[in-house]
Amino acid sequence: MKDYTIVTESTTDLPQDLVNELEIEIIPMTFGFENESYLNYPDFREMDIHKFYERIKKGERSTTALVNSKKFEEYFEPIIKSGNDILYIGFSSGLSGTYSASLIAAEELKQKYPDSKIICVDTLAASMGEGLLVYYAAKLKQQGKSMDEVSQWVLDNRLSLCQWFTVDDLNHLKRGGRVSPMAATLGSALNVKPILHTDNGGYLVPVHNVRGRKKSIVALFEHMEELCTAPDGQTIFISHADCLEETEYLAELIKEKLPVKEVILNFMGPVIGSHTGQGAISLFFLGKER
Description:
The chain contains 11 helices and 13 strands. With 290 residues, it is α/β, with parallel strands linked by helices.
């Protein structure tokens, strides 16, 4: 059986040590402030993650850019030349044009290398939700599963991936068009915290609001308690926008109430954090429905 490489992008928000353990390739995405441009690597080598969120909290605006088809070709072609096929597991098409760009690149390279195989899978997920599907895929690969088997597993299970979010600053949702300016102003005054999730189309949608930060964190757990199937043996991912203490509170709540295998925490990288603002928390697990 021909060997293959799993490729994804830095929006998975996977920590560098786990990237190494899983033996996957990460394409760094671009973010920047005004005339500054940086690449988002898992080890944050181009900008310290705390420094990034300090700048965001002070009111600076960070913008992001998708991975275009030429950049995909630059990352894919050396892998093909090395003799491996490629399984690309990508950022939600409901949130970015990156997945569409991967398809263009794959088609170009298939014409150039007809004996090679490239499979592109849309996770319909973001941050460590995308990362959780990549994690399971890499584990299956390490167990000896073929590229076709692993890609089919992701397709079969992606709508069982539950992704629940809360943010601390409504102004970032206002800029992204998720809430109106009036709702953002009123919500901030009343200490309203939105609870959102990623739907079956891969879009981030508001579900309901709660009053107070702690209640919003508990609400994430309550959704998990309701939706999680067979928590025993599950690895749970939580990403956060530089708010470790509150994220650890959520992790301890989960471990106290549910028999999960482990809970892995990591930062939301600058690409995702540019759209959530400092203080966002996201919870990811497998459940009966999104």
